[in-house]
Amino acid sequence: MSVLIVAEHRRGKVRPITLEMVSAAKELGDETAVAVIAKDPAAIADQVDVEGVNEILYVKVDAEGFENDVYREALEQVISDRSPHVVLVGFSIDSMGFAPALAAKLGLGFASDVFALRRDGDDLVAERSFYGSKVNAELDFPNTERVLLMIRPTAWPPAEGDGAAVSAEVDVTISASRARHVDFQEVAASEDVDITGADFLLSVGRGVGEKENVGQFEELADKMGATLSVSRPLVDQGWMPSSRQVGQSGKTVKPKVYLALGISGAVQHLAGMKTSGTIIAINTDPEAAIFNVAHYGAVADLFEVAEELEKLY
Amino acid sequence: MARDPKYDILFEPIQIGPKTMKNRFYQIPHCNGFGSEKPLNQAYFRAMKAEGGYAAVCTEYCSIHPESDDTHRVSARLWDDDDIKNLGLMCDMLHEHGALAAAELWYGGPHAPCMETRCVPRAPSQIPSDFEHLTYPKEMDKDDIREVQGFYVEAAKRAREAGFDIVYVYGSHSYLPQQFLTPYYNRRTDEYGGSFENRARFWRETIEQVKDAVGDDCAIAVRMSTDMFMGEAGTQLERDCLPFVELVDDIVDVWDINVSGISEWGEDATPSRFYPSGRLLPWQKAVKGVSKKPVLGVGRFTSPDLMVEAINDGALDIIATCRPSISDPWLPRKIDEGRLDDIRECIGCNICISRWEIGGPPLICTQNATAGEEYRRGWHPERFEQAANADNDVLIVGAGPAGMECARVLGERGMRRVHLVEGQDDMGGIMRWIPQFPGLGEWARVVNYRKIQIDKLKNVEFIPNTRLDAEGVKTYGAEIVIVATGGYWATDGLNGCTHDTIPGADASQSWCATPEQIMAEGKAVGDKVLIVDNDGYFTGVSLAEKLAEEGKQVTLMTHLGHIAPYMHFTLEAPNMHRKLHKLKVEIVTYQIPTQISEGGVTSAHVYDEEHLTEWAVDSVVLVTQRRSNEALYRELKDSVGIDALQSEGISGFYRIGDCVAPRLVADCIFDGHRLAREIDSDNPEVPLPFKRERHVIEREAVPA
Amino acid sequence: MKVLVAVKQVAILGDEVEFTEDDRDVDPDYLDYALNEWDSYATEEALRLVEAAGSGEVVVISVGDEDAEDSMRRCLAMGADRGIRVESVRTLDPIQVARALAEVVRSESPDLVFAGVQSSDSVQAATGGALAGLLDMPLVAVVTKIELGDGKATVNRELEGGLVDVVEVDTPAVITIQTGINEPRYATLRAIKQAEDKEIDVRQPGDLGPQAQRVRRMFVPPKGEGAEMLDGGAAEVAQRIKELVEEKMA
Q: Hey, of C30, C35, C189, which one would you mutate to test binding to chain B, going by the most B CBs within 10 A of its CB?
């Protein structure tokens, strides 16, 4: 089973998902090539030369950065050239711009947000969630020769170690780029915070004690690159607006990281955050219900931990 | 849905004396205003808790003799055979649901002024009651002691005959047995006073006698206050309570553990304003430390996690509730069924208690509009009949307490579509900012519960950020329109004292404000603030507390003799006074402003108009009276007209809540609930008659 | 101006679940249904563009059984003009859904085709992209702002970490819409009632092509052992938190 990984990169830096896919490819055990589609693939190639990569394909294109027609057309040609059994792309915003289109056009097997892979004889079996992440399913692809999978970020660790990949150039011709990059913009922070859009939430609960203490955690959140959210009691008391409330009568959130400080985990609160990617909970009560849904936890005083975190950022 | 296994312990049966409770949920004795003389109201009210899963349900305090008469307050009574019949219905209905029935046998002594029976209460020493200051007791001699103990025995036998499984010898809240135990009430020098053994004697003997009489058939419960917080004069945990527990533990089947005396029993029935749930746990645990018998007690428990913790922590064997059982009689069942987000949590406002304190009216509950209506209106908190006119769409304008409740119940009754439209960005109305007063955070549960329930109802849609005008309402497409636009605090000083505005009062000025301008709109006030409070309930004092905590110098002026008199009924007054005193809030009584201007207020004494006082202040806050926001309703009714509305297909046009007349949140929720329950009656605007339990004479049968 | 909006009636699973006999899907008795959240934003965006253009129509298209018309009616109540539903069997994979939709798009020749970035139940984030691929139309995915020009549009593509990629795309195009692009309007009761009478044309699907994925088995994920508890004092815990955050946010 040969695997072709499409490297994801932005502004000269390879994104971690690329190396995570190398780890994923190891589950399938075979020849793994990484295609670097860029204006200057050589400048990026080093970053993907890790253990597990047999071949790095330099796919030179005119576009400065990511453009979906470019990637789709280039990849179509690379696939035709290399005939991989499995194509892996990251389940990312860039990939959403070309991978499903390619899979449909070429009649490939397809699944996205895949977080586990295995071989079952000659079959490829991929695992993903359904029904809002409440159930999982194993999928296979009996009807197609070739499969394209979009891989969930952080599901695999990034591959490390020096590689000894051979490199090869693949020439591609791009007929048209109908969606062209114009510019990048940083989004200005808006007054009205939408916690449902945040990737990293630092959430505080009753454990903060007093209204005056909330500001300290707001600052910490800022330093850590997180958005502050709260559990219901703080909103009831008027310490924070309801736009910040996580929970059944507030908002349901699914950030990559949910850091819960001093939140015990009332049912109504858990309902609003339990499908978060990684939940880290700090509470002085070892029996706190939040530890039932957390991936990582510590029985500790939130103020002490906050103080230490402040030093690190 | 299934029960979470970590709550399994709450559903383990437990033996108390000769009886078995099927789970650990116990409705503690509490008043409802029905007594023995409204037996159907009483029985249906109590049975709802049994239906909701409570393994044991108690009467309110149950008088054992006409000498224990608390009129105007309503107690139950077991004086004669007819009382047996009446309370027997309660026992039967509880038994049908597999619950035990308990009678809290009560003799009040001088705290019960006997205004109906005109008897003279007896007590260990002749000192007027610290609760009913005009009532003196007869000082008991040994014959009196024997007689009164005999009252307990006879009442216990009547209780057994009525079908009660548990009988109390009730002392908490400074009633007779505890009066003997407590030096504050007992100055005797005979063998019933002085040393601990002597002070304990009356209670111990009474328990023994009651046990002898009925102990084989009924469990004997003793309700005791562990500490009256009065120092050495009152009952003290180590000196009196724990030794008493050890003394009689063998003959008691279950302990019911409280704190406090009677004059400040808000230390026991804790308002959420001052205490979180579980306040009594340390005392309950202390008793469990010396007793071999099951211990039960209250603590305004709404969270099953806290309940489990109390048991695992060795503080309680049985979780008792009073107010949480009023706000949600189905609390046990909802925990059992894994429906935690359906639990209608008590907010600790003590509105229920206030009705008993006032004396006479039946209880009401802010969260549960059906409390007390089980019989007289036939309302079941969890069951709703499909509306006969369900094939209609409803528009509710305003998502405050009345609007939310109306939407919820209409949704439950299967109305085709209910749109709850609100101008602000979220539900709650007035209950968005009231819970932001210091200590009132739990009051937000009123909103949180309804938000969750409305979210679950598929036929109810909440539409925020939409302010409808008359045209928008008219053309919205609803067949039934309900206006619930709430109220506001008067901006011109209109008040119930002078029935006039206050010259110069103008909340559009920067130096003059109303409560919602400050709380909901963030209007700033200066350093020296004078609050004109003609309201009588919490808004003025809460505002004073909040502003004083922010560092303002606050003067709180009322035309009444007391600030916030209604808070006496909610048991919040003593601690509120302590707080305001600590915050150096200046309280001024019997004063009414005659002139308000920037920088100053002139006020006159209510009983002497010539006696004027000048106040130099930066800001004036008007808490004089509330007004209805009826502009939209008036425009629809008067300008647009009912005929025009009907041409648009609107067959029903109503209004509910504060926009009709400002009132308690409990009454706004009731108003919304009632309209929804009766939306398919012939004329929903007019409440249907409710059943009245009263004696109706057949004229022909009346003797000449 | 004609904008087609592909909408989906998504399935909502509560806390209890049972599977079908063959273990390949959830028992429908345990499912509730609603309009996909992304699709109300897409519908709103379409309505705004057509309103700004002064004339035109918004057509909602969907693949599903008759019950799926409930969600379509919500879009019609918002103001969409008519709907087209392709009759289907439950659980088509997103590529097959796109094949069914492609036929409709070809028959309508719209100026723009919108789809939500993803559906809340399957989260494949594929249907819109697949549709563009089948029709060979220009595509921009995950869009948070649209400005129409002449024969093209300038759109914002929302990237991870709050960065925005400004893209110029030739039209007609397929655009997948991200939540938050606008504030979807609410439908009054009158609009809901009027929507009952708007036309939903039902069509049979053509060739759906090969299944792109097949469910072998569906199951409840095994509960983890609970939280991995971090050792040490506050300093060690803080250090570990920092590492975890860096790892997971990368």
A: C189
Chain C: residue whose CA lies nearest to A295: C227
Residue A237 near residue A209, CB atoms below 8 Å = no
Give residue for tokens 């080093």.
Answer: A46
Element (H, E) at B396: strand B393-397
Mean pLDDT calculated for residue range B580-604: 96
A301 touches chain C (CB under 8 A): yes
Measured from the Cβ of residue B431, the count of other Cβ atoms closer than 10 Å reads 25
Confidence at residue A191, expressed as pLDDT on a 0 to 100 scale: 57
* Closest by CA position to B167, among listed B209, B74, B105: B105
Interchain contact, C186 vs B476, CB within 8 Å: no
Give chain A's residues under pLDDT 50. none
Q: How far apart are CA A169 and CA B242, in angstroms?
A: 89
> Could A111 and C213 be called an inter-chain contact, meaning their C-beta atoms sit closer than 8 Å?
yes
Least confident of A74-83, A158-167, B71-80, B492-501: A158-167
B436 CA: distance to closest CA in chain A (Å): 5
Nearest to B452 among A235, A248, A266 (CB): A248
Please determine, for residue B143, whether its predicted confidence score (pLDDT) is greater than 60: yes
From C136, C105, C100, C98, select the one nearest C119 (Cα to Cα): C98
- Mark yes or no for CB contact A112/C121 under 8 Å: no
From chain B, pick out residues whose CB is under 8 angstroms from the CB of A266: 303, 305
Identify the residue whose tokens are 């289907």. C88
A195: CB partners within 8 A, 6+ apart: A201, A227, A229, A243, A244, A246, A251, A253
- The residues near A78 (Cβ < 8 Å, ≥ 6 apart) are A4, A35, A57, A59, A170, A172
B423 in contact with A, Cβ within 8 Å: no
Query: Does the pLDDT at position C161 exceed 80?
Result: no
Query: Which residue type occupies B227?
Result: D
Eight-class DSSP state of C112: E
Q: Which of B294, B333, B334 is nearest to B310 (CA)?
A: B294
Using CB atoms, pick whichever of B2, B458, B477 lies closest to residue C188.
B477
Q: How far is A179 from chain C (nearest CA, A)?
A: 4
**CA–CA distance, B35 with B326 (Å, rounded to integer):** 16
Closest A-chain CA to C99 = A104
Residues whose CB is less than 8 angstroms from the CB of residue C162 and which lie 6 or more positions away in sequence, other chains included: A186, A187
User: Is pLDDT above 80 for C92?
Assistant: no
What does residue C215 show for φ and ψ, rounded to 5 degrees?
-80, 120
The number of helices, as runs of H, and strands, as runs of E, in chain C is 6, 13
- Give Cβ neighbours of residue B169 (< 8 Å, ≥ 6 apart): B105, B152, B177, B203, B206, B207, B210, B220, B221, B222, B223
What is the ipTM metric for this complex?
0.92
Angstrom CA distances, A99 to A148, B152, C11, C79, stand at 8, 84, 25, 33
Confidence (pLDDT) at A190:
58
Question: Distance from A281 to chain C by nearest Cα, in Å?
Answer: 9
A268 and B448 within 8 Å at the Cβ level: the answer is: yes
The pLDDT assigned to A240 comes to: 87
Q: What tokens appear for B337 in the block?
A: 């069924």
- For the residues C21-48, what does the mean pLDDT come to? 95
DSSP A246: B
**Which of B476, B480, B645 is the best mutation test for C, with the most CBs of C within 10 A?**
B476
Pairing of strands C9-13, C31-35: antiparallel
**Measured between CA atoms, how close is B364 to chain A, in angstroms?**
23
Beta bridge partners of C175: C114, C140
Concerning whether B275 is annotated as a catalytic residue, the answer is no
Radius of gyration of chain B (CA): 27
Distance, CA of B12 to chain centre = 29
Among residues B175, B185, B192, B654, the one annotated as catalytic is B175
